[in-house]
Design goal:
Largest sheet: 3 strands, antiparallel
Number of domains: 1
Order of helices and strands: EEEHH
Radius of gyration: 17 Å
Strand order of the largest sheet: 1-2-3
Distance between the termini: 22 Å
Structural class: alpha+beta
Number of strands: 3
Length: about 100
C-alpha cells in the first residue's frame, strides 16, 4: 500500500445545515462522539456546499484507492479487458485529484 501523505483531517465529517458547521469526528467514548469544527459554510440554511464539503473525506478515500496497489490491479484488469484508454485516464485523474487535495500542485 502506498504511504499516506495527507496533512488534513481524513474524516468522518458531518454537516449541520442549521449552524453551517462542518465537523470532524475526533474520538468516540462511552459518553458518545466528540467532534471538532473543520469549517463554517456561510450561505442559506442547508447550503448544498456544506454537504459536499462533508463528503470530501469519503470522496478522497475513493479516489485515493486508485493510488494503491489494489486500485492499480483493478485498473490493470480493466486495461486487459479492452478499456486501456479509460483505465489510464482514471489513474491519471485520480493522481491529479489526490495531489491537489494534498496541496502538491
Amino acid at each position: 500500500m502506498s504511504e499516506r501523505k495527507e496533512r488534513f483531517t481524513l474524516g468522518q465529517w458531518t454537516f449541520d445545515p442549521y449552524t453551517g458547521f462542518v465537523d470532524s469526528l475526533v474520538s468516540e467514548d462511552e459518553e458518545g462522539a466528540n467532534y471538532e469544527s473543520v469549517c463554517e459554510v456561510s450561505g442559506a440554511i442547508g447550503d448544498p456546499n456544506g454537504y459536499l464539503i462533508a463528503a470530501a473525506p469519503k470522496m478522497y478515500e475513493f479516489v485515493h484507492f486508485f493510488e494503491t496497489v489494489a486500485g492499480q490491479v483493478i485498473l490493470l484488469a480493466a486495461q486487459k479487458s479492452g478499456m486501456k484508454k479509460e483505465a489510464h485516464e482514471i489513474y491519471e485523474e485520480a493522481i491529479r485529484i489526490c495531489k491537489k487535495a494534498r496541496g502538491e500542485e
